[in-house]
Amino acid sequence: MLLIKAIIRPERLEFVKKALEDLGVYGMTVSEVSGRGDQRGISLHYRGGVLTVDLIPKIQVETV
């Protein structure tokens, strides 16, 4: 048995589900997670100041 974990952007979830269904994989666990990678978060301009968001929302998909 092989456990596959993928952390993806939330807007890509439907594409990943469709691709797994095309391969015959129907069982999966989906969790909301937060994290950051090489981008080190994002900077937003809010009310004249700069706001740095370190942890960006992601989706974790696990399948066996």
In short:
By secondary structure, this protein is of the alpha+beta class. The protein has one helix at 13-22, and strands at 4-8, 29-35, 42-46, 49-53, 56-63.
How does this structure look, described?
With 64 residues, the chain is of the alpha+beta class. The protein is built from 1 helix and 5 strands; from the N terminus they run E-H-E-E-E-E. The chain has one helix at residues 13-22, and strands at residues 4-8, 29-35, 42-46, 49-53, 56-63. A 3-stranded antiparallel sheet has the order 1-5-2, with no helix packed on it. The protein has a two-stranded antiparallel sheet with strand order 3-4. It is elongated and about 50 Å long. The N and C termini lie close together (7 Å).
Measured as a percent range, the helix fraction is 10-25%
Query: Shape, please?
Result: elongated
How many strand units? 5
Q: Determine the number of helices (DSSP H or I, runs of at least 4 residues).
A: 1
Judged by helices, strands and strand pairing, the structural class is: alpha+beta
Mean pLDDT: 88
Give the helix/strand layout.
Elements: E1 4-8, H1 13-22, E2 29-35, E3 42-46, E4 49-53, E5 56-63
Antiparallel strand pairs: 1-5, 2-5, 3-4
What are the main properties of this structure?
three-stranded antiparallel beta sheet, 47% strand, alpha+beta, single chain, 16% helix, 1 helix, 64 residues, elongated, 5 strands
